[in-house]
Amino acid sequence: MRRKAENSATGCRIFLSKKLFGTVADFFGGCACVMEATKMQNHPNEHTETKGLRCSIADTPGALDQVYRLRYAGYFRKGSIDPREDGRFSDRFDATPNHFSFLVRDAAEAAVATVRISVVRPDLGWNESPGSTVFGDHAAFQKLASESFVEASRLVFAPQARRDALMQLLGYMAALADFYEAEWLMACPRMEHSAMYQRLFGFRPMAEPRPYHGVKFETQLLGVRRGELREFVGQTKPMKKAWNSALADLTLAKLAPSNLAACAPCLLT
What we know:
By secondary structure, the chain is α+β, with helices and mostly antiparallel strands. The protein has helices at about 60-75, 130-135, 140-145, 165-180, 190-200, 225-235, 235-250, 255-265, and strands at about 50, 55, 100-105, 110-120, 150-155, 185, 205, 210, 220, 220-225.
């Protein structure tokens, strides 16, 4: 039986260590979590704060405002969007039920990172994602969409973000795919970041580059099956640790007992 979260989202762990390389600092960030088909409020636990950072679902007007401002700052800094008088960047997907924005704040409540996670599960009526507007007519995307996938978009880090958050992000994406039994993890990175996805996580190209939704750069459709990702990173300690840590946090998120039992065998050994 397909699983759903019963109560609220869990927090995430973001660690600060080495400085991110190149332009990736403008691109990656955030965390993933599990929730029902309707958006819910936060129920913080001891896992929501690490190293002075706090991660939560952006479910209030103030939190969403921070998300949209951080997005704007990151994308405008790279010349990927035009200037806007209100200094915010959002789109129609932010109002749909299968898209959830997350915000990482520091001890001073300043926005540090944000990410939007899409869950596409046709059996739940969750069919739309940003990637569908770009690659929806492509046979490779249609194959993913006919099964199920998780997709990350609008990933932004403040300039002070560090390397370890990249592994945390992929760990939470993988854990989210485990929980929702999504077959695929999908990404549409900038072309200059595509090789990194392939080298570190085993993603593979599935379509030629195309202009991406709402921004001024081309992206490539990349995908990896959940089982393939597990095999690819099974001996990679940072990713293995991040994936297991994310799954452990999900089991503490007041999920239904049946979901807890089902998640346990997913841990990498």
